[in-house]
Specification:
The complex is a heterodimer of chains A (319) and B (278).
Chain A lengths: L2 H15 L8 H9 L9 H21 L16 H7 L3 H30 L7 H13 L2 H11 L5 H8 L16 H25 L4 H9 L4 H29 L3 H6 L11 H11 L3 H31 L1
Helix pairs in contact in A: 5-9, 5-11, 6-9, 9-11, 10-11, 11-14, 13-14
Chain B lengths: L5 H28 L3 H6 L12 H8 L6 H32 L3 H12 L5 H14 L6 H24 L5 H8 L4 H12 L1 H17 L2 H7 L7 H11 L4 H21 L1 H13 L1
């Protein structure tokens, strides 16, 4: 459970197993001896991959975002036209707004619920290991496959509506994925279900670093539950908070599988996100230039929000 | 202070209840897959399958117009296996090189790796697709393996470097004095020492590749090399509302990962969080 910790101790064990470097030559000799190991030739495959799969395509993609390229044949520069049509209202603007809504609610929900689960399952509860494993299980499964189970649950005559009837709430019945008012909450719920186990495990790893003595001392000194959390637990798990929030923000903004499986972007584009629109525009409609512009917008949003969130968390941690 | 009190008991009961509700989707999944076509339509999803049948599983295995589930399984195994092999081989040797060749060039290379994390990956996939299409690699195992290994290589190198940096040079020096070549030193001494990192890299990247749908949809749909998620996606499109058959197909597609997960739970959770954390 204490993944990060064990990771570190494992690293330490590897180094610990060997005799310590003797440094009989001083630092200069050490440097020279380093050159006896490995050669830069060994880095060529990695360099090729970096250039061919990362740098060149990103640069080319950024370039074609300013063209009306169709993926084949001639193209022209169109300046900022692609970006203007993304922002001018219509389906892509909806996709942009949906991406923000999903991204932000996803970060908040996974982190709040994940932290609560981690706190609940941290100590004393006897069945904690079993429950942890069960809640983590969806993380390792294909999010496309699990989304289909939820699609069934949300069906017109599916288990959710059936449950509402059985508790006398017929009036709340609806086609959850066909109603623009409920489609986004339904999708967010599926995403949270799939990922909350991962966040929980990350917080459990953080909680393992909180010393029980310190917590006990605080409680003997009359600290309330909230004070104990705020002054003892929270500072210790701050690294987990930063990592979990960053990861969930990026994953939330990039969501594709769940939407493609649950709604395909419907009804009438009400659940489209940037990733789904990029797929449709580029690979279904063949508008490669426009798709590249959308992809660039999405990447820039992800970078800006991630950096903003990090800065926010850092200033919070200090203050 | 952390004793088992009445309060703890209440907390435990509540958490068990939460876990049960959390697992309900899996109950629907398994329960419905064992019902026959008419029961699946007429009986409640909560109601246990009265005469469990493997009918749906048979249909799921035979179905799939373009590629069957087993085709998808085989393709997923080839592509995931190939990508993980590449990532372990290239990742470990690159990380080792960066750890031993200290100096300016090494710093530049590290920088190149770190910057990939903020490159617009979504914008990159379109030129990669066009480039691969032009050289005939779209829809092939090889092209997809290259794509995945290239995309995940920075993470693999990063994970490996957490270990290579900590390895003392004494064993390597001793082996070299005994006449071992550089590559022998790497293969016989360094690589075995890296096995915990290899485990993390294999589990973390393997899961990403195995479960990835987007890349498969773009690079493979319509070809013979379709991976499991793409097969499932097409399968659902072809068997409208035959939920028992769809669920049987989903269960079959989950078996390999669930088997791995149950056997090596701890390594899975460690590998996954270990990968995520860096």
């Amino acid at each position: 459970m204490t993944a990060q910790l064990e990771q570190k101790t494992e690293g330490a064990r590897v180094t610990g197993r060997q005799p310590r470097s003797t440094k009989w030559n001083g630092s200069k000799g050490h440097n020279r001896s380093d050159h006896r190991f490995a050669t830069w030739w060994w880095f060529t495959p990695a360099l090729l991959a970096l250039v061919l799969i990362h740098y060149a395509p990103s640069a080319i993609g950024g370039f074609f975002a300013f063209t009306n390229w169709k993926g084949i044949g001639k193209w022209q520069f169109v300046g900022w036209d692609n970006f203007a049509s993304i922002a001018e209202g219509g389906p892509t603007t909806t996709a942009l707004i949906n991406t923000f809504i999903i991204g932000i609610s996803f970060v908040v929900l996974t982190n709040v619920l994940g932290l609560l689960l981690a706190l609940g399952l941290n100590r004393t509860v006897k069945s904690r290991n079993v429950i942890r494993t069960l809640i983590f299980a969806p993380v390792v499964l294909s999010s496309l496959a699990t989304s289909y189970i939820w699609k069934f649950i949300f069906e017109q005559d599916g288990p959710l509506n059936e449950f509402l009837v059985s508790v006398g709430l017929e009036s709340l019945q609806r086609t959850w994925l066909g109603d623009p008012a409920t489609v986004l909450p339904a999708i967010i719920m599926v995403m949270v279900w799939q990922n909350v186990g991962l966040v929980m495990v990350m917080y459990l790893a953080g909680l393992a670093t909180v010393s029980p003595e310190l917590e006990e001392a605080a409680s003997l000194d009359g600290a309330t539950l909230w004070q104990r959390f705020n002054y003892v637990v929270l500072p210790a798990i701050m690294p987990s908070v930063v990592i979990a929030m960053t990861l969930m923000l990026i994953n939330g903004l990039r969501v594709f599988d769940q939407i493609q499986a649950l709604t395909g972007g419907g009804p009438y584009g009400a659940s489209e996100t940037l990733a789904v629109t990029i797929y449709k525009e580029t690979f279904v409609m063949g508008r490669f230039g426009f798709g590249a512009a959308l992809a660039l917008v999405m990447s820039v949003i992800i970078i800006i929000l991630t950096v903003a969130q990090r800065l926010l968390l850092r200033s919070n941690a200090k203050g | 202070m952390f004793r088992y009190t009445k309060k703890t008991f209440l907390r435990e009961a509540f958490l068990i209840l939460v876990a049960l509700v959390f697992l309900l989707p899996f109950y629907f999944l398994v329960n419905l897959a064992f019902k026959n076509g008419s029961d699946a339509l007429t009986t409640s999803a909560m109601q246990l399958a009265t005469n469990p049948t493997l009918e749906a599983f048979g249909q799921a295995l035979r179905g799939g117009r373009q590629a069957t589930l087993m085709d998808g399984m085989l393709n997923s195994i080839i592509i995931t296996g190939g990508s993980v092999l590449m990532l372990v081989a290239v990742g470990s040797i690159s990380a080792y090189t960066l750890s031993r060749r200290t100096g300016k060039l090494s710093k530049v290379a590290m920088g190149l790796i770190l910057v990939t994390m903020v490159l617009p990956a979504q914008a990159a996939i379109i030129p990669i697709y066009v480039g691969m299409r032009n050289v005939g690699l779209v829809g092939t195992h090889v092209g997809t393996i290259i794509m995945y290994s290239g995309a995940l290589l920075p993470i693999a190198i990063f994970l490996y470097m957490g270990f290579t940096n900590g390895i003392a040079r004494d064993y390597e020096e001793a082996a070299q004095i005994d006449g071992a070549s550089r590559f022998t030193v790497f293969r016989k001494i360094i690589f075995p020492l890296l096995s915990p990192a290899t485990g993390t890299v294999a589990i973390f990247t393997g899961l990403i590749v195995w479960n990835d749908f987007f890349t498969g949809l773009i690079f493979l749909n319509g070809s013979d090399a379709v991976t499991l998620p793409v097969v499932i996606y097409n399968f659902v499109g072809e068997s409208v509302s035959q939920w028992n058959v769809i669920f049987a197909a989903i269960i079959i597609s989950m078996i390999p990962i669930l088997a791995f997960f149950l056997v090596a739970q701890k390594q899975f959770i460690q590998g996954f969080t270990g990968g995520v954390k860096s």
